[in-house]
Design a protein that fits this description.
By secondary structure, this protein is of the alpha/beta class. The chain contains 9 helices and 22 strands. It folds into 3 domains: 63 residues, Archaeosine Trna-guanine Transglycosylase, Chain: A, domain 4, CATH 2.30.130; 110 residues, Transcription Regulator spoIIAA (2-Layer Sandwich), CATH 3.30.750.80; 191 residues, Rossmann fold, CATH 3.40.50.150. The strands form 5 sheets. It has a 7-stranded mixed beta sheet with strand order 16-15-14-17-20-22-21, with helices on both faces. Helix 8 packs across helix 9. Bound molecules: S-adenosylmethionine. S-adenosylmethionine (SAM) binds next to helix 5, strand 15 and strand 18.
Length: 392
Amino acid sequence: MRSLTVNGYSAKWLGKQFPWVYPKEVVKGAVKAGEWATVREGAGRVLGTGVLDDGWIACRVFRHGDGPVDEAWIHGLLDRSAALRDVVVGPDTDAYRLVNAENDGLPGIRIDWWGHHATIVLDSPSLAVLLPWITGWLEANRSPRGVHLAYRQDPRDERRGALHPEPGVLAGFAPTGDVKVRERGITYGVRPHEGPDVGLYTDMREVRAFLEPTWAGTSVLNTFAYTGAFSVSAAMNGAAETVSVDLSAKYLERAEQNFVFNELSLDTHDFLVEDTFKALDRFRRQGRMFDRIVLDPPSWSHGPEGMWSAKKDMPRLVAAAARVTEPGGWILACSNQGDLSPRDFRGLVLSGLERAGRPAQSLQVASQGPDYPALSTFPEGRYLKVTLWRLL
Ligand SMILES: C[S@@+](CC[C@H](N)C(=O)[O-])C[C@H]1O[C@@H](n2cnc3c(N)ncnc32)[C@H](O)[C@@H]1O
């Protein structure tokens, strides 16, 4: 086992259970990616044990204080994660986050459960050292048909190139078609072997849940629709019409398939392969208005209109949506950008409403559901911001 000595600043944060050591905080010790290290303060006291990495994080700590990190310790963390999901995930739902990385004591490791398959998403290949223990636990406790490996590299991570081990099947087999999963009784097709984005964002489940009683008879515009989860949920709960807009034809084909999986007629449900801003502008020129608009954009994306960034473009997006929202209509505005505070996000939405000259009532402020717990000592944990507005 290697030894890593960190500066006083890192020691203070590790003492508060913070899960990372940054490279500039390392005082002594070689950082060999994928190897275990005991983390110490200058005087030699053990602060924790973690996996070393050569990216923007130098060490991810899996146990604070003294004590071994072995299979039993990791299995204990997985048992604790599973115990939460057993309580908070309803019986008609089999798609959920089983392990939420830092927030469940397993930094850099997300595990999503998809019916009978598991997708393990690593922030770095260095964490592969834990895969045998994790796969063993999944096989013993969840009997998956397939365990799949994917990576989610942080934009702050400058390493690029081939990933070892390669993404793919770790155990069992890859499904041949879509795996049908259930969220609150609604069927969605997902591809657990094509992670990290497999076709359903389960962090929005509680948001879709509280909207269920509010869709009846409404016209819905779902922008950045992806595979149409909001549209399907709206349609299943009585929306009169839905329009799903996304730049990707492939995602919208899957959205349409999700309607078919739920035996919904496609007569009053449209799918537009288009840039959201262009669609909103066209609706404004046509005088077409909606009762409900969903704005759930990515944090960043490249579109025909150039680079989209939630921080820069949210006010423009909200203003464009507000101009095609019926009086009394609702806008759901969301951001999954971890480094944008709820207060700043609210400010961006308010400035958009003001720009469109549409005063509004705030109806709901929400975040990710309880299968995405946020650790009190990890400020980035509560990343999802969801706000619901009624335009007057
Ligand atoms: C974070 S996902 C949205 C998730 C979705 N709202 C849901 O609940 O499943 C981002 C989606 O935005 C789409 N997208 C990105 N830029 C876009 C743009 N300018 N106009 C329309 N869609 C865009 C992507 O293709 C992707 O499907």
